[in-house]
Amino acid sequence: MKHSVRIALALLLALCCALMTACAAKPASPTSQSALVVGFSQLGAESGWRIGNTASMEQAAQEWGFGLMLDNANQRQDKQIAAIRSFISYQVDVIVFSPIVETGWNNVLTEAKNAGIPVIIMDRMIETDDDDLYTAYIGADFLAEGKKAGEFLIKKADAMGAEHLNVVEITGTEASTPMRERQAGFMQAIEGDDRFTVIESVNGDFLRSKGEECMRHLLETYGPEGIDVIYSHNDEMTLGALDVLESAGVKPGKDVILISVDGQQEAVDALREGRINCIVECTPDLGGKVMEMVDALSRGETVPKQNHPEETSFSEFDDLSGLAPRGY
Ligand code: AHR
Q1: Any bridge partners for residue 82, and if so which?
Q2: Mutation test residue for ligand 1: of 75, 97, 123, the one with most atoms within 8 Å of CB
Q3: Which of the chain's termini has less CB crowding within 10 Å, N or C?
Q4: Rounded Cα distance, 54 and 319, in Å
């Protein structure tokens, strides 16, 4: 075979491989979906978790070639309701929203239903008697997360041979699903175990600044000796509490047991340093699953109603050397 022909064939082969790789990297079967528009009402930007969740939605929409109308409600339910109404007027193909609290959505979701627009609830859930108001839920099993936190505490108390531990809880946003269920799951796990007394629950609204405030209040009320365990509903509040404890000369992770939820990089680093004892994972990486469902709905497929991602927990009892960077 002539040299020039061989070069031409090699170039053709390389081009075919490049095309195949590009096709394989794309999400499955985009058809007319490049025209799809998703209206997404995000509840805020209160945590690294939330910022990671928004980024996951943006990236997935881009990968699928969907238009994304994104509205950040800055922690206000009325702004979320207004955003959903604007998505209805715009006649988006699918509405996705992460409800800040569980109640108060019936009217606006009835409007979406009457307009024939499917609604995917992402991350947090709503409380409603009418399950037809939404098509599907994609988000964590928050009750299971709370149970994992309680199970870690039992394991830790066993390892310490502890007789009695005073627990304080820093909770997330009042009346939100993660707040309610992380609390309930934790209580269920430690229920009936006399070694634990929850002496106070304070609301930190999932914010680092409020985590600091809560910790100051708890230290003033009970003193460092009066608190053995801090169960905090997210990493932002935990990191705020850490700063206050360390400024007061308390060694978190040693003088007091810290249990957190999420798995943000900064918190995982603190776990590795021995300043946090356990982190229950909650993944913000939900965008891919959401867009896959948008695609399925656009093709008239039936989708599962409840969808939980797989999640784990990380603690001082685990080997964390192989843990990949968290990305949020
Ligand atoms: O709803 C999920 C929770 O909201 C995350 O745990 C928290 O970090 C976020 O603000």
Answers
A1: none
A2: 123
A3: N
A4: 30
Residue 35: its pLDDT value, please? 82
Which parts of the chain have pLDDT scores under 50?
1-26, 28-33
Distance CA 327, CA 263 (A): 10
Is the beta carbon of 180 within 6 A of some atom in ligand 1? no
DSSP type of residue 325: P
| pLDDT reported for residue 27 | 53
Statement: the pTM of the whole predicted model exceeds 0.85: yes
Residue 33's pLDDT is 44
Residues in the chain: 328
What region does 48 belong to: left with phi over 0, alpha with psi -120 to 50, or beta? alpha
pLDDT at 191: 98
Q: How far apart are CA 41 and CA 48, in angstroms?
A: 17
Distance 200 CA to ligand 1 centre (A): 21
